[in-house]
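SAMPLE LOG
Freezer: B-3
Tube label: C17
Construct: single chain, 469 aa
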Amino acid sequence: MWTDKQRGIRVSQQELLCKNACGYYGNPVWQGFCSKCWREKARPAAASRQDERPSSDGTPLTFSKFEEKKSTEKGRRINTMRRLFWGSPSPPKPQESSERHANVLKPYQSLEPGDFTGFLKILKSPSSQRLQSRCTAFLNTMEAYHDLPLQKQSDLVQDFFQSFAEYFSSFPEAQVTRIMEHVEKLIMTRLHKWVFCHDSCDDEQKDLALQRRIRSLNWITPQMLSVPFPDKKTAVTGDPFLSAITAIIEMDAKRAPQDKLACVSKCSQHVFEALSTSNSEPANADDFLSALVYVVLKANPPRLHSNMQYVIRFGLPHSLMAGESGYYFTNLSCAVAFIEKLDGPALNLSPAEFDGYMLRQRAPSEGKRQQVAGDAQHLLVELKGRQEKLDQGMDALNVQLQDWVKAVHSQLDEATAQLALVQKEVAAQGELSQVSSSSSHNASPQEDDKDESVLVLVDQRAGTQDTDC
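STRUCTURE (predicted):
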């Protein structure tokens, strides 16, 4: 079914790990290091560049001045973080008692995964007022100094996450991770408009360049990437990777880094599902990466570079260094790097063929065209059959509907006739009751007159007897 040529994308599990051999996933953006090793490597380099600058009077720094400046820089960094976290250069003097600290932490122990609304309710409670004040002070400070260089803002956010996590040091690691995911969502949802695609970086230009690059490669077929695709015997409608394409496009609409990572994970899971339906054998890493490259080429996600950089700069380190999300994001970074450096040999094409495709002087081969046309014809025949079945079902449903309407009309006529009979019976009973009441009323005055005449006769007789006497 598939070509015997060597696949253009081969990445082993070892190549995805950090170059520092720390066991975490590396990333091409960090030159193969994980986020932790990259920050440890980048910060001393930045500090050395600052220390190598000459003094204001043009004389080189002596060793003592070098040490003094180094300690001053370190103290300034600590004071900046304390000011952002506590609202002042020094920690608050009143220390929290162990009992009060336990009472503050108790509601967070029952926090369910993904219950962001519950986290906000706990954070707004009176017992968590101190933690809420820290978050509010940090957000206000970051919004006030949103003109800082983006890397500086990234360092401040990561330092805040680390300081906030130390407050829950008595919790298990999994529980701390769960809480920090809520903290990240709270902080970065507010800071998204200030730090995403910042003016101090060239993310927007790189987004446009990557989109143009992907658009220029829209001629690439799944067969060129050796992506397993369903054969004619497999019943499938449309592109099996459509769900994955939709998921990766949705990433741009999210604000929190973990939500963007969730879109990447969802896309990757859909890729594995599509591969499982396309091939009888389990999908391997090469198939997955090839399919992910195809998905990115078909989707051309908006602001892909900016979204990935946003996750790298402001996401929680553990989400990128290990776990399922870290593996999927590392593969996405490899897919983007592969697209940026894609050439003819990677697609089993000669340089002349590759240039011809890029210049629109060539198109996919006639055999592939015929195969695509045959697949389209097969799909049209299948759709026509389904349409015929749908029409038959609609006709049957229309007949059933007409029969039902007739039955309702007959029942309605029968009910109307019964109602008329009942009304006649009620009217007849009303007339009878009226006649009986009138007859009884006429009989009562006659009896009264009769009684009065009897009384008159009795009185007359009594008067006659008195006269005789």
